[in-house]
C-alpha cells in the first residue's frame, strides 16, 4: 500500500503512511496532505518560490531555518531557528533556490523547503 504514497517532503523517507486524510512520516514526524504537495509543484513551475509553510518568498525577505542542516567542511552545521536576512531568489542547482549569507558560515544557497518566512 505504501508503494503509491509519495516520499516525505521534509526528509525524503519512503516509509510514509496514511492516517485519515493526512500522510505521516514515522522518521521525522512530519504531517502533510497529499493534495497540498501538488500545488507547490505547480507554483514552482509558475516561477513562484514558496517556503515550507506555503508563504510566497521575495528578494530581500528574512527567513528562519526550520531544521538543522549539515554543512560540508564545517564541524557544526546550521542550527534550527537561525535567522537569515536579505535573501535573494535564484534558479539554483538541485533545488537550492535561495542565495544568502549566514553569520559564521558565509555565502551559501538554501532550499526553500527548509526555511520559513520571518
From TrEMBL:
InterPro entries (alphabetical): YjdM, YjdM_C, YjdM_N
Domain Protein YjdM C-terminal stretches: 49-118
Ranges that cross the membrane: none
Pfam family membership, one: Zn_Ribbon_YjdM
PANTHER family assigned: PROTEIN YJDM, PROTEIN YJDM-RELATED
UniProt-listed NCBIfam families: phnA
Family membership: Belongs to the YjdM family.
The name this protein goes by in its record: Alkylphosphonate utilization protein
Source species: Streptomyces triculaminicus
Highest classification ranks of the organism: Bacteria, Bacillati, Actinomycetota, Actinomycetes, Kitasatosporales
Amino acid at each position: 500500500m505504501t508503494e503509491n504514497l509519495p516520499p516525505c517532503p521534509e526528509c525524503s523517507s519512503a516509509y510514509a503512511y496514511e492516517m485519515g486524510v493526512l500522510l505521516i512520516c514515522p522518521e521525522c514526524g512530519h504531517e502533510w496532505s497529499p493534495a497540498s504537495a501538488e500545488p507547490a509543484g505547480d507554483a514552482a513551475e509558475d516561477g513562484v518560490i514558496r517556503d515550507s509553510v506555503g508563504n510566497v518568498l521575495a528578494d530581500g525577505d528574512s527567513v528562519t531555518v526550520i531544521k538543522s542542516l549539515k554543512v560540508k567542511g564545517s564541524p557544526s552545521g546550521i542550527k534550527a531557528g537561525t535567522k537569515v536576512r536579505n535573501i535573494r531568489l535564484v534558479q539554483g542547482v538541485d533545488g537550492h533556490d535561495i542565495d544568502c549569507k549566514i553569520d559564521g558560515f558565509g555565502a551559501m544557497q538554501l532550499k526553500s523547503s527548509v526555511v520559513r518566512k520571518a
